[in-house]
Write a structure and sequence with these properties.
216 residues, Nucleotidyltransferase, domain 5, six-stranded mixed β-sheet, 36% helix, globular
């Protein structure tokens, strides 16, 4: 198990090579979102020594709950191919980790309201990335309504990928006790998803239809 964990960097390189082979970095549209990675029950967090000083508290709006742990961050192409990823202390502002994931990406990046920050948009623009998000109610939106509606519709794809990672690969659950093994587990789950996508790519099937692989 320890030897396997030591290969996390190799697994990351394989993931990126597969994504590149499928054209993920040539795509001009990407989507970004995050998901909770709790490390223990909230009631045990105060006395838990697991990831002490490394994990933090945050609120997950989708589940309407506060949790203790980390937050996974994901960028996918418009076809659902994972092309950027990281995880951080759950209390870290998601806007602070965006640029950790954008290497090799160009074009439009669709985020949620949590990624709104003028300085971030300006810095991404210097990388050739245009950040587009739905705006808050107190902000004036001069963009065509059809464009905004399209952005919201496209974002369902990243929710689908995160749902698969959670339901099929249990990426939100933590069964380790240190960052080294958590990093390995995180990348291993992402690689497993990417391998499934790659198999569908080779077979000419819809990339995210994993059920089809069972019958091949």
């Amino acid at each position: 198990m320890k030897q396997s964990a030591n290969l996390w960097l190799i697994k990351e390189r394989i993931l990126r090579r597969l994504a590149d082979t499928m054209g993920a970095y040539d795509d001009r549209l990407h989507l970004i979102d995050g998901f909770p990675m709790p490390v223990c029950q909230l009631t045990r967090a105060a006395r838990s020594r697991c990831f002490q000083g490394e994990a933090g508290y945050s609120y997950c709006a989708a589940k309407d709950e506060t949790y203790y742990g980390f937050e996974g961050h994901l960028i996918i192409s418009s076809q659902g191919i994972i092309s950027g990823f990281t995880f951080a202390n759950a209390s870290v502002d998601e806007r602070d980790v965006v640029q950790d994931m954008t290497d090799g990406i160009r074009g439009l990046l669709s985020g949620d309201k949590g990624t709104i920050r003028l300085l971030l948009s300006e810095e991404l623009a210097q990388q050739g990335i245009e950040l587009q998000t739905p705006l808050r109610k107190n902000m004036n939106d001069s963009r065509p309504k059809a464009f905004v509606k399209q952005i919201m519709s496209i974002r369902r794809l990243v929710e689908t990928v995160i749902g698969q990672l959670s339901d099929r690969f249990h990426i939100e659950k933590s069964r380790v006790r240190d960052l080294w093994h958590l990093t390995n587990r995180f990348i291993r789950k992402l690689l497993a998803h990417t391998v499934g996508v790659f198999l569908n790519f080779c077979l000419g099937q819809q990339l995210l239809q994993f059920d089809a692989l069972v019958h091949v």
